[in-house]
Amino acid sequence: MKNIMPPLALIALMLACLCGCTHYGPIDEEMGNEREWEEQQYRAALEKARQHRLGSRRNPVRAGSAREQHDYLSRLRCKGGRLPEYHYVRVEGELTPWGHGMDRYAVSCPRGQRTTVFMDLHHPGHVEDQAITGFTLAPAPS
Hints:
Structural class: alpha+beta
Oligomer: single chain
Strand order of the largest sheet: 1-5-4-3
Order of helices and strands: HHEHEEEEE
């Protein structure tokens, strides 16, 4: 009679490994803790940034892409409701409160009002609803 124990033991070992590999409890828990930590860090950076003027180096306007940066800038209104002109200046070497590079834009109004706006394009889904100092902001299209 053949000894079938080694093949059965091998099959049992393989099944045990498979069962062990499908258990994600501790890994899911660690990933959840990491996401929670990242969210806490984000909120803390936001709270700190809000102590400064919107559009400044320490509180850049948040957007989700370059297109969304332009959408925000195109919604700005000068005193009297006129549209400002704006142009991209450069990427700044200094990092935002969230650790991203920031873009710098020059904004000017027909009557001489000028300002610099710093923006962070690494915030997917965020649509800024506040205007920078000295401007109003048209509503975002829905």
